[in-house]
Amino acid sequence: MKCAVHNDLEAIAVCQSCGNALCPDCRITIAGIAYCQSCLDAGRIRRPAHIAAESEDHMPTPLGNVTSTSRRNLMIGFFGMILIAIFIHAQWIFPLSYYPPLGAQTHILNVCRTVGTVLVAVGIGLSAFAWNEFKYYFSFRWAFFIALVTLLTPWWGVLAEILIFSGLVFVETGPYGFLGPGPLAPVFNNLVMVSSLCLGILMLLWAIVLLYVRKNSRAPKLTLGSSIIYIILAHLALLTLGLFLPSLIFYPSFGIIYGIYAIIPAIIIEAGVILNAVFFYRLAASLKPY
Hints:
This protein is mainly α. About 60% of the residues lie in helices and about 5% in strands. It is elongated and about 95 Å long.
């Protein structure tokens, strides 16, 4: 059998995408599978149906033409996810510093929570680099939109945190020095609700992307696990948190209860972003040096 391109050379393989015969000069081997240059350029490369069941030990081959900065962008997304995983724990003290008596401890807790919130927002923003890379790696046409939403979403919560330091969101009330709603409490409440809504939508979008990626990925446990976690978080943010948070403004005694409740989303989201971090890292490692 002769090569489809070089008629004077014997073929040694067949392209697993289009079936054309390939000589040694035309064969392109990716993950042990033979392809032709035409299929690679056209983005038609997919895992052949006869390959055994997917294994998380092997990364998918790029469906599109990755750029010279693809590895860097995936690693930026990896570090962004690590930031989220580390500082999401700052949210554990999110409500606990609103309602104790005024003093140095309250201020320190506010500062720690705000710094943690900012770093989580930065981590989410950095992950946009990796999500955008999916338009090259997986030919995902909506990747830029997902990346843009990822970049812009987390800052509503940061704005809410900044308002806390105005001293007008919660003011000292009663003879015991506890905090109650201040003149900017409605603005703060609305920002928190918008933040909750946006984060819920973002988690849902991430889940959809990963479910799409799973069709072309040999890392089903990573992508499926992250998708399930993000869907759970989307429901928590859009339903439970959306109904529960207003009560914190009008019923401060619920602060401690919410503090316990907030630990659950923190742990869940940490698991999701760690899975995503591993996925981004392994995608970056699977690319050949340029």
